Amino acid sequence: MFRFLLPLVCAVTVFTTACSSNYNADEVPDVSPEALYQVAQGAMASGDYTLARRYLEALDSRYPFGALSEQVQLDLIYVYYKSRESELTSAQIARFQRLSPTSPNADYVMFMKGLNQIQMRSDLIQDFLGLNRSQKDPTHYYEAIKTFKELIATYPNSLYVTDAYQRIIYLRGQLAEREYEIAKFYNAKQAYVSSIRHCQNILFSYRGTEYLDPALELMAENYAALGLPVPAGHTASVAKASFSGR
In this predicted structure, what is the pLDDT of residue 127? Predict the structure, then answer.
């Protein structure tokens, strides 16, 4: 396993280092902003985000108030995100929202903010290996849900609303899974009260997820282990009545 991971880690390190490098402006030719942007567009279309970033940053530096300024800033958000430069993405989003709060693209920027917050909870190795993210610190997921809810409330007619709803459903499922795994952990350690509390978190906060049924069953098991047959019976009855038809 370690023989497999070592070259992967090295490759990811080289890739990440390349993505975070500061490019010399002299590498970009002194041509018109339109010509520079054409190269950047072509690079983005082909997935060459390193080249796209180089030309977009040159455009942003040389022509900060040009006709292409807003589009360049939007493209930088996307390129930084695709390059997994989360901090740069956050900074660019904050910059855009500060300078162009009434832009017709404000909903897109808010959507990208949510996507970036999701991405901040993972890394290349985890994604490559398909590792479960549910056990990690959930802070970024809470922030992403808040961002997507703000998008839906502020821009109800946005093209990104449907996707935002789906992202919220996914995130709530991930958070519910985390609570359930913690509840199982405490149950295995015979810390039944702590296990019940995490089951209750699912009942109160993540009722629409697939983890409600197993959480109720586990909660009934915990009550029984504590010698509390009445709440154990009530909880089991609720689980049976709610999910027996599934």
Answer: 53
